[in-house]
Design brief:
17% strand; 251 residues; six-stranded parallel β-sheet; 39% helix; globular; alpha/beta; 9 helices; Rossmann fold
């Protein structure tokens, strides 16, 4: 079986990718800042990264940070992968990184280009936002009685487990370059997602739509982060809420 290194393997997505691959009999190494025996800060690289990479056939790069450092981490990872003779680098990106002028999206796009120019065989999958992220944002907004929602912004959340299944599938297949985007089953207004969340959580909140400004907001409003032509996800937001939120009301 293949030896696979999953970066960010303790995170929301990476943990599920690891479970899928191990379930199929592959040897999987989990790399993160705190996971032994491969506890490595990717931004710094070093001997620990080289040790984690030794004998690896495929790398699935799930590690990321909204606080910056993705490009530095990718540079260290690619250099170590080339040195170790890795045969396949798989990267998870976000739908719209080339259309939405948001700092984090720009970093993800830059990493895509680094992967493409790495000299390694590669696969890149872009997915829409996970249900988990939508709930995390709404949970933070719900700390006050009146919830302000960006006016006119749609979203297309996807089930993270389905993205993990797809990444695991790609990891054991031949390098495929940029594959088709993966979007959730429905394009919804953020307002409707908010109301569904508050209902499931048993929270009474006044939802107010407010217009914002700037290029990033206009890009989100125009659907630059959506993939309606690739609505291949099956799990709906309400189904996710029923599993994750409905049983923990008031939490």
């Amino acid at each position: 079986m293949t030896t696979i290194l999953v970066t960010g393997g303790t995170g929301t997505l990476g943990r599920l990718v690891t479970e899928r691959l191990r379930g199929d009999g592959h040897e999987v190494r989990v790399l993160s800042r705190h996971a032994q025996p491969y506890a490595v800060d990717l931004r710094k690289g070093g001997p620990g990264l080289d040790a984690a990479m030794a004998g690896v056939d495929t790398v699935v790069h799930c590690a990321t940070s909204t606080n910056g450092g993705d490009e530095e981490a990718a540079g260290q990872l690619i250099a170590a992968a080339r040195k170790a003779g890795v045969r396949h680098l798989v990267y998870i990106s976000i739908v719209g990184v080339d259309r939405v002028p948001l700092g984090y999206y720009k970093a993800k796009l830059a990493v895509e280009r680094m992967v493409e120019e790495s000299g390694l065989k590669w696969t890149v999958l872009r997915a829409t936002q996970f249900h988990d992220l939508v709930v995390k944002v709404l949970g933070a907004l719900a700390k006050v009685p009146v919830v302000l929602i960006p006016s006119g912004v749609p979203d297309q959340p996807v089930e993270v487990a389905e993205v993990a299944d797809r990444l695991a599938e790609l990891a054991v297949a031949a390098p495929a370059g940029r594959v088709a985007d993966m979007g959730g089953p429905e394009v919804r207004s953020f307002d409707s997602l908010a109301r569904a969340y508050f209902k499931a959580a048993g929270r009474r909140r006044l939802v107010v739509n407010v217009p914002l400004w700037g290029k990033a907001y206009r890009s989100f409003r125009s659907g630059g982060h959506l993939a309606p032509e690739h609505a291949v996800g099956k799990g709906t937001f309400e189904e996710y809420l029923g599993r994750r939120v409905g049983g923990a009301r008031g939490v």
